[in-house]
Structures are given as C-alpha cells and as structure tokens.
Amino acid sequence: MSGIAFAIPGDIELPTGGYAYDRRLLAEWHAMGVPAEHIALPGSFPFPTEGDLHLTGRALLQRPYDDTLLIDGLAYGAFPEGIAAGLAGRVVALVHHPLGLETGLAPETARALLAREAAALRYARAVVTPSPAMKRLLAADFGVPAERITVASPGVDAAPRASGSSAGEPLHLLAVGAVVPRKGYDVLVTALAGLSDRDWRLTIVGATDRAIDTVAALVAQIEAAGLSARIRLAGAIGDAALAEAYASADLFVMPSLFEGYGMVLTEALARGLPIVCTTGGAAAETAPDDAALKVAPGDAAALAKAMASLIDAPARRRAMADAAWAAAEVLPRWRDTAAIVAGVCLPGWGQKGG
After folding, report:
1. Burial of 93 by CB count in 10 Å (0-12 exposed, 13-18 middle, 19+ buried)?
2. Residue 252: what are its φ and ψ, rounded to 5°?
3. In order along the chain (354 residues), what is the average pLDDT of each group of 10 residues?
4. Measured between alpha carbons, how far is 22 from 27 in angstroms, rounded to an integer?
5. Alpha helix (H) residue ranges in the chain
6. N or C: which end of the chain has fewer CB within 10 A?
7. Distance (Å, rounded) from C-alpha 12 to C-alpha 23?
8. What is the enclosing helix (H) or strand (E) of 306?
9. Which residues contact 319 (CB under 8 A, 6 or more apart)?
10. What interhelical angle do 132-141 and 107-121 show, nearest 10?
C-alpha cells in the first residue's frame, strides 16, 4: 500500500514553528491511521554539502515508487534542479516560507536560493503551504500554478485563557520565536526603549543558539538601553514553562519582518491574548483585526505607538482579549490540518475510509 514518506532535514525536535508543524502532522497521521514515515535528511540544509546531497538522493530514491515524497521546503527548496527533476511527479513540497526570503542573507545568496527553489518547485506534483498569502506569493513570484497549491493552515490546540500578571506587577509582554534576524527583536527593543516610563516587563521565549551574533547584538542593545532588568531572554523552554509564560502574559507582541503564517499568533489567540504584530508576510491575515494592532515590519516608532496604546488602555486590552478568545473558537485543529495534507499526498485517502 502506498504511503507518505515525509522527508525532513535536521533535528525534528528543534523548537521552531516549521518543525512543530512537521511533528504534529506525523503525530496526527499516526493517530488517524495514515501510512506515513519520517525520513530524516542531513541537517546541513538549506546549504547542503555534496556528500549530504548524495545521501539525500539515495534516501529518497530507495523509497517504494508508489510512495508520495512529502519534502519539507527547508530541504526541497535547496535541491539542485537535477535532483528535483529526477523526482518529478513524486514530490509534494511543503513550503513554510521561501528560503531566499530569510532575513540577513547576502543578496547573492538570497537570489541563488530563490532561483533554485523556483526551479525545484516546477517539478513538484503539488505544493502545500500554510497560508493564503504564501499561496499568492508562490503563484506570483515562483511561477507555481495556483491549482497545484493547497493551503493547510497550522492547527491550534485548545488552551486555558491567560490570567495575566498579578495585581501590582508590571504589565507582562510576551514574544515567542527564535532569536534570529527575521524575528525583528532589535526593532522591538528600540520601540520599548521609548516606553521606559511605562510599567512593563518583556519575556522573549525562543532558541538563542541559531544566530549567535544576533543574540550578542540584542543583549548589547538591551544593556545599552538600560532595559536588562525588564527584558528577559528565556531561551528555548519546555511546553509546561511555555504554557506558564502564556498564562501570565497580558499582551502578545510579534515584531517579525516576515512570516509564512505566524503560528505563535494563533497560539496567542488560543489563550485570549490581545496582540501587537507586524504585517510581514502572512502575519497581517493570521491575526484578526479586532484582536490585533498591526504595523509595518521594521517600523519601531509605529510598534511603540501601538504597544503604548494598549499598555495605557486596560479597557481596550480587555476588549481585544475578548475578541481573541472568540476568534480562537473557529481556528483549525491539527487533525483538520493533517487531513488536508494527507488528502494532497494520498488522493482519495479520506474516501477509502482512512
């Protein structure tokens, strides 16, 4: 019987949105009885060595021919055209966001990645992406026919509503995401430096080992702004600690420069948190307007103004929190997401009683 061979590069347990998406697909498929197997690819992607490309090609070509090769875009987008062509018709590409749009790349590296990903996508039988915004981008800028692209938005788990900070404590701001250039934490610190007269504290939850120079620069920026006692870099933390961080938060902030979806936004909605975020990538559409204030990415002044307007207005925060809690009721669940992707990979699977 044919199944899904889900090829994912690197450590699937890494605390990123993309890997979380991949893990949940595999877990849901196991529970649903969908025939699927995790194929571990080398961790050097998106800049694979020749040796790793050889290992990758061999691992994929060893799969039964009637398996669907679902390949995470962190790897597939970096495939040389020759490898992609050799797998033509067998691949469903999962594109979280284009590799060449990662912040901080040298211009020539970004151009090369964009060209390579566009070439590889021409050979994919189908493409799965997390948001309508990403579908439009892939169709317009990468030449993927819209009818070959399926949106499978990340699911969200039901969660208790956040209770916020205790009486007499500073307002608790929360940001979640790895400390890498694309997340825009330097913009957030610049914005908060102008709000030092307000009573707040910020917790940034996310891996600090993926961009060491960015982390060092951020720590120096925080110290120079005199905010070391008010901004905490918590690093990557476990699920229980993350749940506690959400529970004690009063306002969720996402300053990202670009997001293919922005899973942390729906996680914040699931806790009934008001949001301040950017309009980078799909983020503008992920959070509903009545639950989020949205500003242009990279605009520290606008970000500061939006945060101040909620820090200073408890009633407005409560109204937006209520809107967030209501919006969470209609968010997709992970079982829905997994069923959509399974249907793309194994056409007719749902009609066969799977």
Report:
1. buried
2. -100, 135
3. 91 89 97 96 95 94 93 96 94 96 94 97 97 96 97 95 94 97 97 97 95 97 98 94 96 96 95 97 92 97 98 97 96 96 88 46
4. 9
5. 17-32, 50-61, 73-76, 81-86, 107-121, 132-141, 185-193, 212-224, 239-247, 263-270, 283-286, 300-311, 314-328, 334-345
6. N
7. 7
8. helix 300-311
9. none
10. 90
Structure tokens at 226: 């005199």
pTM: 0.91
Residue 223 neighbours by CB distance under 10 Å: 11
Q: In angstroms, rounded to a whole number, what is the distance separating the alpha carbons of residues 200 and 172?
A: 6
Q: Which two tokens stand for residue 171?
A: 């307002």
Residues composing the chain: 354
Q: What is the DSSP letter of 276?
A: E
Alpha carbon distance 308, 192 (integer Å): 9
Residue 213 phi/psi, 5° resolution?
Answer: -65, -40
